[in-house]
Amino acid sequence: MKVVFVSSEMRPFASTGGLGDVGGALPFALMGQGVDVMRVMPMYRRVLEGNLQCSDTHIRIQVPVGLRTLEAEIWRADEPGPATYFVRKDEFFDRRELYSLPERDYDDNFERFVFFQKAVVGLLDTLHVQADIVHTNDWQTALMPYFLEYGTQGIGREMHERTVFTIHNLAYQGVFPSSVFPYSSLPYSCFSLEELEFYGNINCLKGAIKRCHQVTTVSERYAKEILTPEFGSGLEGVLAESQHKLTGILNGVDYGEWDPRADILIAASYSADNMDGKLTCKRALLEGTKLRLKKGWEKRPVIGMVSRLVDQKGMDLLANTMEAIMQEDIYFVMLGSGLEMYQELCLSWAKKWPERFAVQIGYNNALAHQIEAGSDIFMMPSKFEPCGLNQMYSLRYGTLPIVHATGGLDDTITNLDPSNNTGNGFKFTEYTGAALLSSLREAIARYRDTDIWYPARRRIMAEDFSWDRSAERYIKLYETTLAQS
Ligand code: ADP
Ligand code: GLC
């Protein structure tokens, strides 16, 4: 089976969040199960500046974008694993960020990703790739089924591929004014109520849901939630009509990257059988973030958090609750970037509690690993969470997560129950500060009771959320859709 995986993010090349983790790991897991995988992503400045080896294939694709015809250079990674191609166009992708500056999205995002997707179709045709499945992800690649059907010029193409689309987050739909539609070169019939049109605008996600042979999202619970007005972000009706082809498949963990036994980014390695290294990691984290190591620091729990600083991640809840949270005898270490107002809020907390609260604003993969390893408890109070990866990483690092019962968090975390040695974290159902606080207090109490905490840590470290299981489910889905063709 030949699968082309198209994504705007893939670790380690470029990533802003979980989509990059998925693009970096799922194709390898598919390959491990015998699938012939090829990946394509844009060549951002970050890819060019990274230490990764890639070279020019000298393939050039002519891409019509509105009235212009632009040339895409095709580069290829010289790395083991799935064949990875990059679409290079410096005018569009040689920028500081992937999609936006802190103030606003780039104005030409529609043009940029139309160019990228058409270049991918041009590449498949140039290389005569006989793909069975084209698997695309989120709004940036949501128009692929259209370009596969209509070609780069919008006049038609012999489409032999089946398409699978994964929704990683329904909150980002790729909505653009109708005035930019001509960049797509698609027939105007595609800009209809049945296809891309949504309240007068173009809605890329809607188009993919309508057109793709299969639609998946990243947890079973989220697959149900998005059928409701609360989580559907206006697309619940469109999704309900497509329910027959909608599946939830939980993401996995790349244990090659996230495992304290072999993590080169943390101060000391450790395992369920020998946890000494975890204390070394805790000390290194506190020292590294300049928190005060006062007497008894070992017994004071470290709450860690790594997150985009946006409403989705529960920042509004923390904003209202931090005062009460910090009345507990804890350390809090936070890493994130996002909305200016939340960045400033976090900085103000660090100023207020300089000995116990630390924050680093920015994207820092090494520190993300060090927080997973050095914390005792991981904070993930997301308002909604399609899957969430850090709660699963936390389990492997023996760091018990506190989560809100939503999406993938609800599917992966169960309440700790010492009476029968079950559970792997602390989960609150109502999205309120009081509920969050009560979970936090319970976590702290459990932490203080080492007869409960130590066995719980050992137990959660043995849990297995590897990608193999998810890859198996994707392969089954690919097979089902191929059988339908
Ligand atoms: P989302 O994709 O919604 O941001 P996920 O939990 O699926 O949430 O994935 C987030 C990923 O991004 C994790 O691998 C996490 O460690 C990483 N991450 C998020 N923010 C940062 C940051 N500021 N620095 C480093 N890594 C980060
Ligand atoms: C999105 C979601 C997150 C998910 C990730 C990878 O960014 O917000 O919950 O884990 O995609 O699928």
What topology does this entry show?
Elements: E1 2-6, H1 18-32, E2 36-42, H2 45-49, E3 54-65, E4 68-77, E5 83-88, H3 90-93, H4 109-126, E6 133-137, H5 144-150, E7 162-167, E8 175-177, E9 197-198, E10 201-203, H6 204-211, E11 214-217, H7 220-225, H8 229-232, H9 236-241, E12 246-248, H10 276-288, E13 302-309, H11 315-325, E14 331-338, H12 340-352, E15 357-361, H13 365-374, E16 377-380, H14 390-396, E17 400-404, H15 407-412, E18 426-428, H16 433-448, H17 450-461, H18 467-483
Parallel strand pairs: 1-2, 1-6, 2-5, 6-7, 7-11, 11-12, 13-14, 13-16, 14-15, 16-17, 17-18
Antiparallel strand pairs: 3-4, 4-5, 8-10, 9-10
The chain binds adenosine-5'-diphosphate (ADP) and alpha-D-glucopyranose (GLC).
Adenosine-5'-diphosphate (ADP) is lined by residues 17-18, 21, 306-308, 335-337, 363-365, 368, 387-390.
Structure notes:
By secondary structure, this protein is α/β, with parallel strands linked by helices. It folds into 2 domains: about 1-250 and about 470-485, Glycogen Phosphorylase B (Rossmann fold); about 275-465, Glycogen Phosphorylase B (Rossmann fold). It is about 35% helix and about 20% strand. The protein has helices spanning about 20-30, 45-50, 90-95, 110-125, 145-150, 205-210, 220-225, 230, 235-240, 275-290, 315-325, 340-350, 365-375, 390-395, 405-410, 435-450, 450-460, 465-485; strands spanning about 1-5, 35-40, 55-65, 70-75, 85-90, 135, 160-165, 175, 195-200, 200-205, 215, 245-250, 300-310, 330-340, 355-360, 375-380, 400-405, 425-430. A 9-stranded mixed β-sheet has the order 3-4-5-2-1-6-7-11-12, with helices on both faces. A 6-stranded parallel β-sheet has the order 15-14-13-16-17-18, with helices on both faces. The protein is globular, with a radius of gyration of 23 Å. It binds adenosine-5'-diphosphate and alpha-D-glucopyranose. The site of adenosine-5'-diphosphate has 17 residues, from helix 1, strand 13, strand 14 and helix 13.
